[in-house]
Design goal:
The protein has ten helices and no strands. By secondary structure, the chain is mainly α. The protein has a single domain (about 5-195), classed as Hypothetical protein af1432, CATH 1.10.3210.10. α1 runs parallel beside α3 and α5 (about 90-105) packs across α6 (about 115-120).
């Protein structure tokens, strides 16, 4: 597997083809997910071989946005299937990578520890200090695509999302869940304020 070749290919593709409206799902998000995936591989004691598969999945997981913002996970798998063979990835390895990409589709549905890691890496920000700034970039993106109109709708959506979401890895349960709970409490207070108007 030529991981570095595949990485150079997909980062170049993302840089050239992602829309400027993707204030959340831009190249910075893919690099963030890659970085957290590397961290979680270390903390969760993932083998070097499986770490390569995971990092490749992280790099390709939102590549479907180069085509469309609808069903981008399926489109990302298509891109992986088309391009990864020439970087020495076998069909079973590519299908494993596609399983990881599909697991990140909301609501997340990981079926094994590797899929759990990429799911936690994808939503790592939910329990980090940059929660509100990253959340705001997602709000701006959803507004640009006419999915949302108001901050109130967005905050109600966030409360519902955080109430349903749970981290899967022991690492993120420990290091991200406590902070995520505080953000949920803060957002609930904000939403309660809307009721009083």
């Amino acid at each position: 597997m030529n991981y570095h070749g595949a990485k150079a290919f997909i980062l170049d593709k993302l840089e050239r083809e992602l829309s400027g409206d993707l204030t959340y799902h831009g190249m910075h998000h893919t690099l963030d997910v890659l970085y957290v995936t590397e961290e979680l591989c270390y903390f969760e004691k993932v083998s070097p071989y499986e770490a390569i598969l995971l990092k490749t999945a992280a790099l390709f997981h939102d590549s479907g946005f180069t085509i469309n913002n609808k069903d981008h996970e399926v489109l990302g798998c298509n891109i992986a299937r088309e391009h990864l063979p020439r970087y020495g990835f076998s069909s079973p390895e590519i299908e494993q990578i596609c399983g990881m990409i599909m697991a990140t589709k909301i609501p997340q549905t990981p079926r094994n520890p590797l899929e759990q890691i990429i799911c936690d890496a994808d939503l790592d920000y939910l329990g980090r200090d940059d929660f509100f700034s990253i959340g705001n970039s997602l709000y701006e993106e959803l507004k640009a695509y006419n999915v949302l109109e108001t901050v109130e709708t967005w905050n109600r959506l966030q409360v519902g999302f955080l109430e349903k979401h749970a981290f899967f890895t022991e690492t993120n349960k420990r290091r991200r869940s406590p902070q995520k709970s505080k953000y949920l409490d803060t957002l609930k207070e904000i939403v309660a304020g809307y009721e009083k108007k």
